[in-house]
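pasting for ref
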Amino acid sequence: MSTEPDAGMLVSDAVAQALTELGVDTAFGLVGSGTSLAELKALSIRLQIDKFVTFPGRVSDEIMLKMLNTADVCVNPDAPNAMNDKSTMNKIMEYMALGKPIVQFDLTEGRFSAQGASLYARNGDVEDFAEKIVELLDDPARRRVLGELGRRRVENKLEWRRQVPALLAAYEALWPAEVESLYETWTS
């Protein structure tokens, strides 16, 4: 059994902190159907934040897009661990592509991907995570700046068309003959 904190538990604790101790008046949507969904719902009741939090579970892309388009701040509560430190979560790219500001823990790959589009909480520090959420909720101008930085980063650096040349160069270094035919397929 893992002793690492669960991402959902971390965000629930941060939401509770934001609502109760920092006085935020907002709604939160926790999307997904992970193994801790029932536990998260129970925790939201225990923390008395259930009237501020919805748990739609796994949703269609259309519903997800609607939810994200109404969000003022998006979060990536993935717990600091070896895998999360070296992985970019799809949600980070989605948030950036939609021009949304992000709050996440200060993980290596998350910082590399989002750069200036995110505020970074100290790893595992729920209070700092909550404070970062509130900081952005209270500052619409900063949210716009971070969102624009993320959107431009996706468009100018991270989208597939920008990544193909580097990927092909790496493949070509390993398999030169195969890459030539692959390149012809991609560029025709």
